[in-house]
Specification:
It contains 2 helices and 2 strands. It has helices at about 5-10, 50-60, and strands at about 15-20, 25.
Length: about 70
Amino acid sequence: MVLCPTHHAEFDYGVLAIHPEQLNIVSIDNTHPFQAKAPATTLEHLNPDFIQYHYEVIYRPNELKSE
């Protein structure tokens, strides 16, 4: 997936993720402008296992983020 440097970093640091079932963008910040939005591109080229891995291991929705 092609991202600008800012959003690439947000994905790398677990600020943003793609919800593996809903396939929309989720954020640790509910006021993020992309929260609950659909990605601007189709995701059919992405392996669902990678989306799931990023969501569970990098984004970690069940952990409290503190920074």
